[in-house]
Design goal:
By secondary structure, this protein is mainly alpha-helical. It has a domain at 59-130. It has helices at 2-7, 10-33, 41-54, 62-68, 70-78, 88-104. Helix 4 crosses helix 5 (70-78).
Length: 130
């Protein structure tokens, strides 16, 4: 075995030693320096959920919403409340509180997902639109 290392060029031995040292340093950093939230996927998801729930929600505007919800926009535009405007900040604060409450309590129904908000639009006659 000693002859094997003597036959290798000095540069190859240096590179092998360098990679071994780097591997040991990376393992030590991962084991002793990184916090558990960076190592465990469950903790990563929990911290990301808390961070996103704490962010301020910004209202994009009716034109942005119309891009995906054309049918609901048409119903509203032709309905009884077509001239009604709301303060988006009030609506978003209420929905943010609901989301935060849902994130902090266990799931009760199998069909719901924590952190989602379901909007139901109604026609002028009070019938839910699809």
């Amino acid at each position: 075995m000693g002859n094997f290392f003597k036959k290798l060029p000095e540069q190859a031995v240096r590179i092998v030693v360098l990679f071994v040292v780097l591997a040991v340093v990376l393992l030590l950093v991962r084991q002793f320096i990184l916090p558990p939230s960076l190592k465990d996927p469950v903790l990563q998801k929990a911290s990301a959920t808390e961070r996103e729930a704490a962010r301020e929600i910004k209202y994009a505007g009716a034109q942005i919403c119309t891009g995906c919800h054309e049918k609901q926009h048409d119903v509203k535009a032709s309905g009884y409340h077509r001239d009604l405007t709301c303060d988006p900040a009030t609506v978003l604060r209420k929905s943010t509180r609901k989301i935060r409450r849902r994130l902090n309590r266990p799931r009760r129904r199998s069909g719901t997902t924590a952190g989602t908000v379901t909007l139901t639009f109604f026609t002028a006659d009070g019938i839910p639109s699809d």
